[in-house]
Every structure is written in C-alpha cells, then in structure tokens.
C-alpha cells in the first residue's frame, strides 16, 4: 500500500511538473528548445513568422531617460503598406529585441515599463533556440496592447548590472543590428499566435548641426593714396576750395 501511494505521488509530481512546463511554454508562447534545430533560422527574430506584415513598429528614434534607461515609442499603422489581413487587427502581445549574447550575464537584468508601469511579466534575456550560435533576444511578453492602446505607447528599458558590475548598461552594448550604426536596436512585434512579427529599427537621434558662423569681413587694403590740389591755372571748373567741396 505504501509503495502504491509513493508511486501515485511520484506520478502526480511528474504530471504537475509537465503541466507547469507546458503552461509556461503556452504562457510565453515560446519554442520548446528540444523541438527546434539550433541554427535553423539564421535571421532575427529567429522564428518562422511574417516579418513585414503587422500594424506595430518602433518609432525610428529612441531617447535616453536617466541613468541606463532608454525609451522607445510604438507606432501603429494599418495602411496597406504596413499590413494585410488578420495582422492588421491583431493585438500586440510581445516585443523581442535582437541583443548581444555578451549581455547574458548571471545576475544582470533589464526592467521594462510601458507608459511608466512595469510589465506584467519581467523582461528576460535569453538565447534564441532556433538562431545561430551566439544569438540572443530580450523578451517583453504579455503586453496586452491593441491597435488603440499601443499608439504612441512608450516602452522604457532600464539596464542593470549584477553585483560585480558585469552586464550591459548602454544600447550600444545591448542591441545587435548588423549593418546599422552602433546603438541601433532591432525589434520584432508579435501577436499572440506569433504569426505576425513585423521588424523595425530605432536609433539614436542625430546630433544637431553645428552653428552657422558668419564670414569674417577683412578690412579693405589701401592700394592708392591721392591728394587733390588746385591746378596751376586756377580756372573753373577746376577750382577746389572749402566752399566748393561743401557744395558738392
């Protein structure tokens, strides 16, 4: 009887763990690492989804906001050039950033907020199971935004090192965007089913142009000096006296 009870307890434990893992996978809608082939999807977002069809994208410029904090605006566009079909009306469930694997440091973290409120599920730095060796993503999930609430929503990331000071603290260190200037971040916006995942980039604002410096006007050089004197034969109209000069 005791052995039966022990076996039943073991089975219940296994089922509970299996259910928890399944629920975790469904909650985050992520790959089961054992079910994908590493390196099978070489390009970000390292998933089999439509990277050009969707209503959500990052505004082209991010802004710094205090110590190690950087903010992005979400833009919503439902025109024919941005999306078609169900992707035009799908909710925004998750954002993933293409990041450097060097930022995957034990104890380092990222705090994410949407319009000043922390995300329901904490931001996570993770390897990309189907991506090439060294690929990694920063995941913000369960955002619960739609085409109305996502418009101009501000997503802010605060980068924190571990206790030893290790980890990424700038977007130049964090974001991986091959072919773009340092500090450019590439992100994919996912619907719940992860079928629509439009990819966009956000970079640093361009520095203001230098001030226009007016040209320096150099003084005129004296080339000729002349003295006017009355002619020897003082006959009009060659008479130059003070009265004549004053009358001119």
TrEMBL record:
Q: Which UniProt keywords apply?
A: Signal
Q: Does the keyword Signal apply?
A: yes
**Highest taxon of the lineage:** Eukaryota
Question: Which positions fall inside the Pherophorin domain?
Answer: 44-198
Span of the secretion signal?
1-25
Q: Which Pfam families match?
A: DUF3707
InterPro entries xref list: Pherophorin
Q: What is this protein called?
A: Extracellular matrix glycoprotein pherophorin-V7
């Amino acid at each position: 009887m005791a052995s039966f009870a022990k076996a039943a307890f073991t089975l219940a434990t296994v089922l509970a763990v299996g259910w928890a893992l399944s629920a975790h996978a469904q909650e985050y809608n992520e790959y089961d690492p054992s079910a994908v082939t590493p390196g099978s999807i070489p390009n970000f977002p390292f998933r089999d989804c439509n990277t050009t069809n969707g209503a959500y994208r990052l505004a082209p410029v991010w802004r710094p906001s205090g110590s190690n904090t950087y903010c992005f605006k979400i833009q919503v566009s439902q025109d024919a050039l941005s999306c078609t079909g169900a992707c035009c009306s799908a909710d925004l469930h998750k954002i993933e950033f293409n990041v450097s694997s060097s930022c995957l440091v034990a104890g380092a973290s990222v705090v994410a907020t949407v319009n000043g409120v922390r995300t329901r599920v904490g931001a996570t730095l993770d390897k990309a199971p189907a991506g090439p060796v060294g690929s990694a993503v920063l995941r913000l999930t369960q955002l619960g935004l739609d085409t109305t609430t996502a418009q101009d929503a501000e997503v802010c990331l605060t980068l924190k090192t571990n206790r030893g000071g290790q980890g990424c603290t700038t977007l130049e260190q964090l974001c991986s965007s091959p072919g773009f200037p340092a500090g450019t971040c590439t992100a994919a916006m996912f619907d719940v089913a992860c079928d629509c995942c439009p990819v966009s980039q956000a970079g640093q604002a361009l520095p203001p142009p230098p001030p226009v410096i007016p040209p320096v006007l150099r003084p005129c050089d004296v080339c000729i000096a002349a003295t006017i004197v009355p002619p020897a034969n003082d006959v009009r109209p060659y008479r130059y006296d003070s009265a004549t000069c004053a009358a001119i």
